[in-house]
């Protein structure tokens, strides 16, 4: 790959691959070292130790594991080596899904392949169904490049609900659109049983942030922020800006008020937080979804990507472990 290609941004301004992604060719190369879809570097074999780290966390509680995004089956194969009962996998691309079906036939533990965008499949899955979740999909548009994982993690916002109601989960009612999505619970939190574990990544985002904004990968994940002290222990993090994080998270493109159903006149929108945090802060959405700070940890591994990798050049990679109490 030329250095020109290496320097090109992964997404051009306004680029949106959503409509074409499902039918697009899954470009696995001959040594099975790379997967490209619509010219995007979706998955590469050098990530193997990192994928194994994520898979080990996701399978660490045994039971039924949900994996979102199949790619090259690197993580999935590691999950299958663990002491689990079932392995449910969501994948939206046709070619990748065919590979998943073929791969599933040879696995030691039951595989449940689920075809479609996770945004369509996840709301159909029952509450508390999984002991572990591994979320590793791919941004399908420039506007979700840095934030798609938050759509899976953060509290579901519904038009007509003020941020305060959502943050406290007061209404506790589902919507006809998403019968299994309750305001006050993000998808990940809802799907996990108590004691279950979530792990996830967005390397296409994190690789970019580590080029442009951060040199310390743990800082990139956490960014220093202290939750308000006055909150009761069991109370979820309140929202701000009708669906945004109280310290400023959520005003990023794609997760702003228009998407989260902001209600004009919501008193929380009147006072913008200060100082705002960068849009990519990982901790805020996890806390807002109901996970507790003391149950969120990370481990860092050394792994040098090959120089030709377009999306990641940092020599360290971070594995989150997020336990549901
Ligand atoms: C980075 S790869 C996953 C790599 C995998 N963890 C591995 O070890 O090989 C991301 C996968 O997520 C799929 N994907 C992207 N967006 C998705 C969505 N919204 N719903 C379901 N699958 C999605 C892509 O087609 C791709 O196969």
From TrEMBL:
<dbReference type="GO" id="GO:0032259">
    <property type="term" value="P:methylation"/>
</dbReference>
<keyword id="KW-0949">S-adenosyl-L-methionine</keyword>
<dbReference type="GO" id="GO:0005737">
    <property type="term" value="C:cytoplasm"/>
</dbReference>
<dbReference type="GO" id="GO:0030731">
    <property type="term" value="F:guanidinoacetate N-methyltransferase activity"/>
</dbReference>
<dbReference type="InterPro" id="IPR026480">
    <property type="entry name" value="RMT2_dom"/>
</dbReference>
<feature type="domain" description="RMT2">
    <location>
        <begin position="14"/>
        <end position="325"/>
    </location>
</feature>
<keyword id="KW-0808">Transferase</keyword>
<protein>
    <submittedName>
        <fullName>Guanidinoacetate N-methyltransferase</fullName>
    </submittedName>
</protein>
<dbReference type="GO" id="GO:0005634">
    <property type="term" value="C:nucleus"/>
</dbReference>
<dbReference type="GO" id="GO:0006601">
    <property type="term" value="P:creatine biosynthetic process"/>
</dbReference>
<dbReference type="InterPro" id="IPR029063">
    <property type="entry name" value="SAM-dependent_MTases_sf"/>
</dbReference>
<dbReference type="InterPro" id="IPR051038">
    <property type="entry name" value="RMT2/GAMT_Mtase"/>
</dbReference>
<feature type="region of interest" description="Disordered">
    <location>
        <begin position="256"/>
        <end position="281"/>
    </location>
</feature>
<keyword id="KW-0489">Methyltransferase</keyword>
